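Annex B. Sample input.
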Amino acid sequence: MVDSHCHLADPVFAGDLEAVVARARTAGVERALVVLAAGDVDEARQGDRVAELWPDVRFAIGVHPHAAGGFADDPPRSARVVRGQLAATPAARAVGEIGLDYHYDFSPREIQREVFRAQLRLAREIDRPVIIHTREADADTIEILSAEGGGALRGVLHCFTGGPELARAGLGLGFHISLAGIITFPRAADLRDTVRSLPLDRLLVETDSPFLAPVPHRGTRNEPAYVARVVETLAALHGVDPSRVVEATRASFHRLFGP
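Annex B, continued. Sample output.
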């Protein structure tokens, strides 16, 4: 299995990171993509520790929409910060997570959009996939991806919680869709209905740990080992053996992010 999106460099894992990695490996998680906040020195240092303990991890680096306000004076600077950190991180494979979040509005929406555009342009220039965060901003997210993509962008709509319209738009742009533990939640029936219609060869699985632990772990700290529950639920929704989901999502991950 591959956990295509987690935050193992988060401080909540600092005290027992070695045990978390060991549990992931025991559960059959062969690789994880660890997301780092661009410019966060402490997180980058923790990322180095993750890589020492688990050499097969890969990294994504980006300015999250919550942090976009820090670049209000010069939105293109966000891309320069990401570029520099990508160059200094040999295991980095993607720009992300980036996008728009109109739920919390921790950063002004116009600044979010400008920072998003700057990072998409960087991804096109350096030919890296992007990991997209969108919350209550789907129309603007798709419009910007369409405008900036030019058919040359590839990536994933991470922690997908949208409906059929967003799924069709993302797939139409050539993107993959990543599913997290939310698909196991009792109240996520609409999401499960959407997931049943999605092509298995365009899906990824993730934990988004330490957030969104799947049932039966809901309410506790999430971790990469729990991606197995996402795999099992996705397999049930598609009526296939979990091994089929593992094979398909692993292939999609490597196709997107390389070795």
